[in-house]
Design goal:
heterodimer; A: about 200 residues; alpha/beta; about 50% helix; elongated; B: about 180 residues; 8 helices; globular
Chain lengths: ~200, ~180
């Protein structure tokens, strides 16, 4: 935010020249006011943006019984890093993400891609084989943290920050999967604000 | 040291306004003060009344020369003068033998009251001070000072500001009323 708001005194000076009349405000007052105003505007727009306006509706999901190879294939084909797990009625019961797969592979928390590679090099055997028989139901994070269709983008920002997650399944009143919203969706919404 | 560093200032001064703006400010101030001083020197000269006080010169800077300023808006112009006059006269009456105390109390309280009522108008400080250090004629007015010259004078300047500042297409006054 800071870099983007980096307007110079010269910018303000030129703007003041373009506006007719004496403007009773100092450059630094103007900059401070602008920064605060900008933050409020972003907050207001995020608050008034409903999730169904920015979410991806065409969601790839898996069931609790889906096996690891299929989960990985689904993630690779869609270049996605997480999938909602649903039951037979399309209710969201969990989320399986890269993090969950890494955790299943490494057997501990906070295992990353490079840890897995290092392990593969040292042990000289692909770890993936050890978890190939596991299902989404076994490795998913559950219960899923979800948002409702009518919630605002601001709610998503709060959850992304507070829970340190990257995607949120969006559900209707009956907890049925309607879409998914990611940090990237929010970024796009934010960039749209800027373009406007 | 940061304390002294701050005294160097942080930025450049704003640009000069256009010649048009300068001329229109002159015209507004000339008309506004003309009306008040004509009444003062030609119509009220033989009476105990007066219509011009020094603080109106300062108000003219704002309502004809810096018309977009929050300090120059009707609420501030009229409210600031009247509240300050009320406080000035009160302080003068409370401490008639201690003009130093009455003066400082009047100005400081006027600023605080204008802030609290969102009517900050710098000339109001002068209006409060004049109530204490003004001529015998002003002292004789008592609380009438709040209405004449202060209240009426501020209203006359407001009417002329509304009339003159809205003639050019590029100028408009006020920014807000309340």
């Amino acid at each position: 935010m800071k870099d983007k708001l980096d307007i110079s005194d010269q910018d303000v000076y030129e703007a003041m020249r373009e506006i007719e009349g004496y403007i009773d405000i100092s450059m630094s007052d103007f900059r401070e006011l602008y920064e605060h105003t900008y933050k409020h505007a972003v907050k207001r727009i995020l608050h008034s943006t409903r999730l169904d306006e920015i979410m991806t509706s065409d969601v790839i999901s898996v069931t609790e019984q889906t096996g690891m190879p299929e989960i990985i294939r689904a993630m690779a084909s869609g270049s996605i890093s997480g999938l909602p797990v649903v039951d037979a009625e399309n209710h969201v019961v969990g989320v399986v993400s890269e993090k969950d797969i890494f955790r299943a592979l490494g057997g501990k928390k906070d295992v990353g891609f490079w840890d897995i590679l290092t392990n593969c090099m040292e042990v000289n055997k692909c770890l993936l084989r050890s978890v190939a028989g596991q299902t989404a139901g076994e490795i998913m994070s559950s219960p899923a943290i979800t948002l409702k269709v009518g919630d605002s983008a601001q709610d998503a920002v709060r959850l992304f920050k507070g829970k340190a997650i990257n995607r949120l399944p969006v559900v209707d009143e009956d907890n049925i999967l309607e879409g998914i919203v990611t940090r990237t969706d929010l970024l796009h919404a934010h960039l749209n604000i800027d373009e406007q | 040291m940061k304390y002294f560093e701050k005294m160097k200032g942080a930025t450049i001064s704003p640009p000069r306004v256009s010649l048009f703006e300068i001329l229109w400010s002159w015209l507004g101030a000339f008309l506004g003060i003309s009306v008040l001083s004509y009444c003062h020197f030609n119509l009220l000269a033989t009476t105990d009344m007066l219509m011009v006080i020094g603080s109106f010169g300062a108000s003219a800077v704002l309502v004809y020369g810096a018309i977009r300023s929050p300090l120059a808006q009707p609420r501030n112009l009229v409210g600031g003068h009247i509240i300050s006059a009320l406080i000035g006269v009160t302080c003068c009456k409370l401490f008639p033998d201690q003009p130093w105390l009455a003066s400082s109390l009047a100005v400081a309280t006027a600023i605080a009251a204008m802030h609290a009522t969102k009517t900050l108008h710098p000339p109001g400080g002068a209006t409060a001070l004049i109530a204490v250090i003004g001529s015998a004629k002003i002292h004789a007015l008592g609380y009438l000072y709040v209405f004449i010259p202060v209240g009426i004078g501020a209203l006359v300047m407001l009417v002329i500001a509304l009339f003159i500042n809205n003639i050019p297409a590029k100028r408009s006054y006020p920014e807000f009323w309340w």
